[in-house]
Amino acid sequence: MKKRFYTEAAYLAGIIILALGTAFMERADFGMSMVVAPAYLIYLKISQVLPWFTFGMAEYCFQAVLLVLTTLVLGRFKAMYLFSFVTAVLYGVTLDIMMKLVGLLPLPGIGGRVFFFAAGMVLGAIGVAFFFHTYIAPEAYELFVKEVAGKYHLEISRVKTVYDCCSCLIAVIMSFIFFGLWHFEGVKAGTFLCALLNGALIGRCSHFMEKHFNFSDGLKLRKYFEN
Fold first, then answer.
1. Where are the domains of the chain?
2. For residue 216, what are the β-bridge partners?
3. How far apart, in whole angstroms, are the C-alpha atoms of residue 8 and residue 25?
4. Do residues 180 and 36 lie in contact, with contact meaning Cβ atoms separated by under 8 Å?
C-alpha cells in the first residue's frame, strides 16, 4: 500500500536535498552538474571582483534569465513563473548554507571526493524528482523541462537529458570565455558523466516515488499555481 506524501513536503524536500547535493558536488571538485555549471561559472568569475557574491546569488540571477527564455520559447507567461523565481531565491539561500555546512566535513583523499560526488549526483536526482511531484513552482531549470514536456507531450526524463546536454555545452563555452581555452573550471569529467546519466537517474527516482508514495495536496493552494 502506498504511503501518503504531501506535495508541499515534496517542494521543501526538493529545495533542501537538491541544495545539499549541489554542495557535495562542489566540494568533490570533479565538475558541477551541467544544470548548475553555468551559474557556478558566473559565481567564480564575479566573485573574483565581488567577494561577497555567492553561488546562491549566481543561481537566482541566472534562473531569472532562464525564466525570461521560458516565456519566449513557450510564447506565454504564467504567474507560476514568478513563484519559480521565489523558489530560486529560497534555493539559493539554502545552497549557501549547505555550502558552509558541507565545507566543515572532512574530505579524506580521492576516495572521499568520489563519495562526495556520487552522493551529490544521487541527491540532486532525488531533489529534482521531488520537484516534479509538487504543484508549487520549482526552480527555473525544472520548470522549463516540465513546461516543454507538458506542452509537446514528451517524456520528462528525455526532455531533461536534452536540456542537460545543452546546458553542458553552454557551460563549456562559458569556461573557455571566462578562464581560457584549456583551463577548465566547473566543467570537468563529472559534468559530462552527469549529462549522460542524470536524466535516467531522475526517471528512476521518480518511478520509485510513484511506486511507493501517493502524492496529494495538504493545502488548498494548487489553484494559485496553475495559471
1. 3-215
2. 6
3. 26
4. no
Residues in the chain: 227
| One-letter identity of residue 63 | Q
Q: What is the band of 214 on the pLDDT scale with cuts at 50, 70, 90?
A: very high
**CB-neighbour burial class of residue 120 (10 A; exposed 0-12, middle 13-18, buried 19+):** buried
SS3 215: strand
- Long-range CB pairs of 83-87 (<8 Å, 24+ gap) are 83/136, 83/137, 83/225, 84/137, 84/138, 84/139, 84/140, 84/143, 85/60, 85/140, 86/137, 87/11, 87/15, 87/136, 87/137, 87/138, 87/139
Q: Please, which pLDDT band fits residue 94 given cuts at 50, 70 and 90?
A: very high
Q: Is 216 helix (H, G, I), strand (E, B) or coil?
A: strand
For the chain, the 3-state helix, strand and coil shares in percent, each to the nearest 5, are: 75, 5, 25
Write the single-letter amino acid at 142.
E
- For residue 72, what pLDDT band results from cuts at 50, 70 and 90? confident
* CA 160 to centroid of chain Cα atoms: 11
Share of the chain above pLDDT 70, in %: 98
Helix (H, G, I), strand (E, B) or coil at 53: coil
DSSP 8-state symbol, 128? H
Angle at 44 between CA 109 and CA 179, to 5 degrees: 95
Highest mean pLDDT (candidates 92-96, 187-191, 192-196)? 92-96
| Residue burial 53-75, b: 16+ Cβ < 10 Å; e: rest | bbbbbbbbbbbeebbeebeeebe
Please say whether the beta carbons of 94 and 16 come within 8 A: yes
